Amino acid sequence: MESKQVPIGVSARHIHLSKEHIAILFGDGAELSVLKELSQPGQFAANETVEVVGPKGSFPKVRILGPARGKTQIEISRTDAFSIGVPAPVRESGNIAGSPGVTVKGPKGEVVLEEGVIVAARHIHFHTSDAAKWGIANGDLLRVRVNGERPLVFEDVVARVSDSFALDMHIDTDEANSAGCKTGDAGEILS
Amino acid sequence: MESKQVPIGVSARHIHLSKEHIAILFGDGAELSVLKELSQPGQFAANETVEVVGPKGSFPKVRILGPARGKTQIEISRTDAFSIGVPAPVRESGNIAGSPGVTVKGPKGEVVLEEGVIVAARHIHFHTSDAAKWGIANGDLLRVRVNGERPLVFEDVVARVSDSFALDMHIDTDEANSAGCKTGDAGEILS
């Protein structure tokens, strides 16, 4: 049977901002500008960054990923979470209810978030055609072997399937470092 | 068959010092004092700490683990390595030849190391009797499942067997964070 190889994308800490928060942080009418297109169609790393301040420390330059979203969300690693003192839970993107907040500072203003800081659950974006070919359904939990410098098998890798996705496995920096892999390496779906 | 359960110990960044370096950093005749006994017989976390300085940053309080060793060795995570700009290789403890150096500062002096900074390869300490019972030999590479918040299977876990060891699996903070586990949790040896 064909090996189910998936390219790996390592997510460093980043933030998605709502339109309302972009206006507060960067000024009325401000828009994000594109630094680099990302693997998912329409998504981009912006030139703009913000400071993220927690009770024990801060990250002075956190990259904004665009375009604007309905709700502001910050994705950090567990190492980051300890570093700034924010007990971020492991969650799927978009599921921020009850997660801790943090203060976000931009050049024109700041926002005190009530919630929105998560550690993103590892996941694979599948285009509908990839998922169909491999018999994978949205929400499946997969096992993926990464044969890097420190080989391991990630379990509970969430399958996310959409016509608007491109095939890519997203893990955070803790996960990449413990596997000894980097963006552009490949993982193999075992089951 | 009996499940091969192993307690997990998460190693934060730490340093082992030679006698010569203890004298330079803390003064002639200085000795390490015991803060806490560790899982391995005779090993301890010292009250004393040092600053570790790399080209891109520093860690102001790195815990010393005693007793003194033949050679000074610093064990950091890959996240730490990026943070201070030191390209530490994944190595077994004691194998520091050709690894990068760093500057170590104590209250009485400093040492510029030519080598000694590694990312410790994940490993399990087995007492000889544990290893015999489970048919494991020194140097075996094992697969260990950790069923934490983010389940995964670590591969290439090095078996280290000695009469002077107590059963314990040592992983670093990146590995613990990506598994969602902590010291005192258990792993299961699969093969």
TrEMBL record, chains A, B:
Co-factor requirement: Zn(2+)
Broadest EC class assigned to this enzyme: transferase
GO BP of this protein: 1,2-propanediol catabolic process
MF annotations from Gene Ontology: acyltransferase activity, transferring groups other than amino-acyl groups; metal ion binding
Domain of life, source organism: Bacteria
Catalytic activity: propanoyl-CoA + phosphate = propanoyl phosphate + CoA
EC number: 2.3.1.222
Pfam family for this entry, one: PTAC
Keyword terms, alphabetized: Acyltransferase, Metal-binding, Transferase, Zinc
Pathway involvement of the protein, from the record: Polyol metabolism; 1,2-propanediol degradation
Transmembrane stretches, start-end: none
Role, per record: Involved in 1,2-propanediol (1,2-PD) degradation by catalyzing the conversion of propanoyl-CoA to propanoyl-phosphate.
Family indicated by similarity: Belongs to the PduL family.
Protein name (record): Phosphate propanoyltransferase
UniProt organism field: Xylanibacillus composti
